[in-house]
Amino acid sequence: MTRQLSVACAAAFLFAATGAGAQTAPLNGYYADPAHPPIGGFWRPAPGQRVVFKVDGKALPPVDANRHQAGFPYKPAWAKVLADRYAADLKGAPYGNPDNSCWPAGPIDDYVLRDDLSGMEVVQTPGRVELVFEYQTTVRWIYADGRPHLKGDELLHTVKGDSIGKWEGGVFVADTIGVRPEMTFGYNLPHSDKAHLVEHFRLVDRDTLRIDVDITDPVALTKPVTATLLYKRADPATITEKICPEENWQKIVGPDLVVRPDPRVKKRYGFDLPPVR
Predict the structure, then answer these.
(1) SS (H, E, C) the chain
(2) Alpha carbon distances (Å) from 243 to 72, 119, 237, 238
(3) Ramachandran angles phi, psi of 15, nearest 5°
(4) What is the structure's pLDDT at 27?
(5) pLDDT at 16 (0 to 100)
(6) What pLDDT does residue 264 have?
(7) Rg of the chain (C-alpha set)
């Protein structure tokens, strides 16, 4: 049998197995869910502004040269936290982002932690979507198998939070609660343990992924905030291991998020947040 005939037979077998109208998955390792649009792939931030935050439908100014974001609708005590963090930045003593001591980022900070072109791999399978971030090579699992959020004592606040997802037409919707309050909305923007994120992943076209995020926090914010991010497909690609800057290794951070640069200093992330009432 000739090579051409072998290929033709294989194609005919595949056609018969999948059916004329069936959607077949692209031949890459990212997409294994033919029932839904292929958001899987390797993505890098699109050129231009990394994220656009909006309040009441109006875009906030982009971050400034110090990576400071203005305009978030914080309640007074939380606005003071942010002002103090940014003042510390300007004095050369930054505080507020656990990444400063090589702690993994939270679910919003993952997208904006670095303004370089660090990418994100989306692995899409039936029942679950995984986000693998190039910077620090951390993984976030979004379960889309019908399970509800964890509740009560079962809901342990974690770095990435408790994420469940579902498809609404061609849009994948991820709902996240239970994020540790030591994490941020990016750019050192604080939040409470009641922060609630709803992300909408949609393909603008084959090579453009748009993520719209609805952000609410009844403890820290006076009104909702939205965030929009754009990514461009970068397939084929291999994730490059990117770890914390070497100077950050000198700090030791424990599982309790207490930073111990030396025996005389113990600083707990979250110590500057307003007290829980």
Answers:
(1) CCHHHHHHHHHHHHHHHHCCCCCCCCCCCCECCCCCCCCCEEEEECCCCCCEEEECCEECCCCCCCCCCCCCCECHHHHHHHHHHHHHHHCCCCCCCHHHHCCCCCCCHHHHCCCCCCCEEEEEECCEEEEEECECCEEEEEECCCCCCCCHHHCCCECCCEEEEEEECCEEEEEEECECCCCECCCCCECCCCCEEEEEEEEEECCEEEEEEEEECCCCECCCEEEEEEEEECCCCCCCCECCCHHHHHCCECCCCEEEEECCEEEECCCCCCCCC
(2) 29, 13, 18, 16
(3) -60, -45
(4) 41
(5) 35
(6) 57
(7) 21
What are the tokens at 164? 């469940």
Cβ-Cβ contacts under 8 Å for 39 (sequence gap 6 or more): 31, 122, 124, 129, 172, 201, 202, 203, 209
Tally of CB atoms within 10 A around 113: 21
Q: Mark the ranges of the chain whose per-residue pLDDT is less than 70.
A: 1-31, 114-116, 245-266, 276-277
Give the per-residue pLDDT at 259: 66
Which domains, from first to last, does the chain contain? 41-268 (2.40.128.20)
pLDDT at res. 145: 92
pLDDT of residue 35: 83
Q: Report how far residue 130's alpha carbon sits from residue 110's, in angstroms, rounded to the nearest whole number.
A: 13
Q: How far is CA 270 from the centre of its chain?
A: 20
What is the pLDDT, as a whole number, of residue 224?
A: 98
- Residue 201, both tokens: 């992943």
